[in-house]
Amino acid sequence: MSGPSDYQPTNPALKWIERRLPIFGLVHSSFVAYPTPRNLNYWWTFGAILSMMLGLQILTGVILAMHYTPRCRPWPSSRSSISCATSITAGCCAICTPAARRCSSLAVYIHMFRGLYYGSYKEPREVLWILGVIIYLLMMATGFMGYVLPWGQMSFWGATVITNLFSAIPYFGESIVTLLWGGYSVGNPTLNRFFSLHYLLPFVIAGVVVLHVWALHVAGQNNPAGVEPKTEKDTVPFTPYATIKDLFGVSCFLLFFAWFIFYMPNYLGDADNYIPANPGVTPAHIVPEWYYLPFYAILRSIPNKLAGVGRDVLGDPDPGVPALARYRQRPGRRNIVRWRSSSSGSSSSSACCWAGSARKPPEGIYVIAGRILTFCYFAYFLIVLPLLSRIEKPRPVPNSIADDVLAKTGSKAAPMVSTVIALAGRGRAVRRQHAKRPRRGSWKSPPSAEMVVRRSVRQVTIAARCSAG
Q1: pLDDT value at 217 more than 80
Q2: Which of 11, 323, 334, 336 has a Cα-to-Cα distance from 141 of 20 to 30 A?
Q3: Helix boundaries (H) for 119-237
Q4: For residue range 17-49, what is the model confidence (pLDDT) as tens digits?
Q5: Structural contact between residues 401 and 40, judged by C-beta atoms closer than 8 angstroms
C-alpha cells in the first residue's frame, strides 16, 4: 500500500518468510511507519471504527448463518427464534448483528460528512471518494437483504415494495422483478436469493475496503488545514500516535455500542417486524430502517414511479462530487462559507429522514415538506457546490501543517499566559499596598499564628487571675 519498507525482522523464521513473501514489511510500512498528518482530529477515527464494525459484523454473521435456515414459515428459522431457542453464542450474535448494522450506518454518515466537510474528495483523492461511495451502496444493498431475512411483517412488505420498483424500468422491468422473486410473488426462492447475496456481499465490501485503504495510502490522508505534508515536521508515525488515538475513539464507540445493545437493542427497529409475515394483511405504513429514510422521503415525494426510482438510483450525486466541486484549493478549516453549506446539506438530509419517518400517508404537508427537502438536497450538490467553487474567497492557508499546529497551540496558550501575567502583577500590587500600611506594635512584619495564640493565652491567663483575686 505504501512504498518499500526498511523493516528487517530479527527472528530467523520471519526472515525466511520476509524473503519469500514480504508481508511483514508491507504491514510495517502501511500501519507502523506510515507518515500521518500531525493535526488530525477525532473526525478521522471513524475509518478505524468502521473497519472494526465490519469485522464484527462478518464474524457474527458467519456464526448466525450456521443456525439460520431460509424458509418462508413463521419464526422457526427467524432471528427472534435463534436468539431465544438456540445456543448462547448464536443468540448474542442475533442481537448484536442488527444493532451493529444500525450503529455502523451512523458511523458511515459521519465519515461521509467529514469527507464533504473537509474536501477529502479533491485531487488526488477522487478514486478514494468513489470507492467510498461504492462501499456505501454495497452496504445499503446488504442491509436491505439482511432486513428481509427475519421474515416479519415489515420484512415481507418491504421486500415486496422495493423489488417492485424495478418494474418501473421500461421493457425489462417485469422480467427483472420475476428474476428477483424467483416466481410471481415474494416467497421462498426470494428468501434463498437474498440470503445468498447477503452472505456474499460483506466479503465483497471487505475487498473494496482493501482498495479504499490502498488508495488512501497512495494519495495520503487529508487533514483539517487542507494542505499537503511537506516536511517530516508535518507528520508523525502511524504507530503509536494515530494508533492510540484510533484505539481511544474505538473504545468510546464500543461503549456507546454496548449501551445500545444492552439497554435498547430494538430502539431503531420496527415493532411490526416481530409479527410473522402475512401476505394477506398490509401494514398501514411501510417504513424502512432509519438509514434508508432520506431515499424513502425522496421516493414518496415524487408522484411518478419511474422518476422517483431514477432519482434514487441514477440521480445520486455523491459519485460526481469531485467533478461538481471545482475548488481552486481544498476546502479546509478556513473556508467558512463552505462549512456552512456543508452543514445545510447535512441538515436537509436529516430533515429528509424526518419526512420519511413520519407514519402518515403521503399527502398534505408531508408531501410539500418532502418535495422542498428533496429540492434542497439535490440543490446542494448540483447548484451550491458548483457556485461556491466560483464565488468563494477562502482565507489564506498556512505554509505547512507544522505552522498550523504551532499557530493553534500559540493561540490557545496566549490567553493562559496573559492570565498568569495579570495575576502575577496583581499579586505584586497587593504586596506593595501592604508594605505601605503603617505598622502596629513593635513587630517589623505581620504576627505569625504562633504569636497570636501566645498572646491570646496570656490574655486569658491574666483575666483568670484577676477574677480569682
Answers
A1: yes
A2: 323
A3: 126-148, 153-164, 173-181, 188-219
A4: 988 998 888 888 888 989 999 989 999 999 999
A5: no
